[in-house]
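Q: Is it fine to ask for two folds in a single conversation?
A: Yes, each is treated on its own. Send the first.
Q: Here.
A: Result:
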Amino acid sequence: MVDGFAQFGVATVHEAQERTGLLAADISPIYPGAHISGSAVTVSVPPADNWMIHVAVEQCGEGDVLVVAPTSPSDAGYFGELLATAVQTRGVRGLVIDAGCRDVAELRRMDFPVWSKCVSAFGTVKETLGDVNVAVVCAGQLVEPGDVVVADDDGVVVVPRGEAAQVLDGCRAREEKEARSRERYRAGELSLDVQGMRQALEDKGLRYLDG
């Protein structure tokens, strides 16, 4: 089910589930071109403390995406090349974090994708406990363990686990519809006609003036 989402972009998934599930716009990829789908392993962390990410590594497996949410706003660099090496070895496909990451050049070289709020070299401590695999709010969206996470150059979208099959069907239907529209555009038709907009525009009061 998770792998089925890999062929669809974030925008398609977002639209297919009635424009829900999209993380805040400031969560962006640290380098372009990455596109992943995976199963969420969630981590709730204190501000500027990455201890629980180390705990979470043990819970990660093939096909997972690590989703990290601080309990209060933080721009610290929670995650870098060493943690990426640890989770990549376990088959983790990427990281989504509502905070900072660092070692960007090394992460790009490793081809380990990260979507973060910022890039920051500011270090973290290991002093306070948090939680792993609990419901978290990450960049404005509720994420539960096992939810589907899809991320690409357009951002990150979360699909609730129990709705994944329905949303996946919606993605397929949307792609088929867009493929038909694309062919009509290439044939020179206008979107006003392909999408049947003219009557709705007229009802709203749109008028064309001669000359």
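Q: Second one now.
A: Result:
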Amino acid sequence: MERVGVISGAFVMEKSDLIRQGGKRRIRNQYGDALVVENDRIVFILRHGDDPDDYILPHRINHQANLQALQDLGVTEVIGINSTGSLKTNLRPGMIVIPDDFITLAATPSIYHNKAVHITPSLNEAVRQKLITAAHDCNLDVVETGTYWQVAGPRLETRAEIRMMSHFADIVGMTMAHEAVAALELGLPYASACSIDNFGNGLVEKPLGMEEIIAGTRKNADMMMRLLKQYIQ
């Protein structure tokens, strides 16, 4: 049976018996170590690790090792489940965006070190359309296109940065663009489903803090798990 690769945070895993009951192991490859949970349908990457006392911050994630592990385990396509902040007031927490493009001005990790390879970054349209169909089948509030702006992290954005980014993108996060680039370099079809967990700093009057972001991510985890289950069916 063909398996789907899924890269996500811990909150989605908490909601899924499908994932919790899988076998957990560490995979070592030429780029480093990756923690995977696998069963006969999914190979799940814990993007931030499984130890709350050793949380892997966004700028420390080894995207090359994670994607290489998925390729070595024979997945045929990869889904990113990404937590994001909204850059537009009409994109509210509790909605899902399936981005069709992204921006990152931070240095992008590459699997190539001594070879001149210049890819044209993109998200896989076939996987994107399957995510959109799965979201509609679950009656989820989904936006079918959008631009994801990746910041370096781990700090949040200033109000001025959010104002600037809102002219060019719809959602902001710290991981998806790097996953997409590493996947494309390895020839793995990749697309992302992004939950909107909060408004960007300054977009609404209420000040933004990590407590709000974590609460939004936990609240949306059930929704994202429904989407994932529908996708793999």
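Q: Anything structural to flag on that second result?
A: Two points. The chain has seven helices and eleven strands. The chain has a mean pLDDT of 89.
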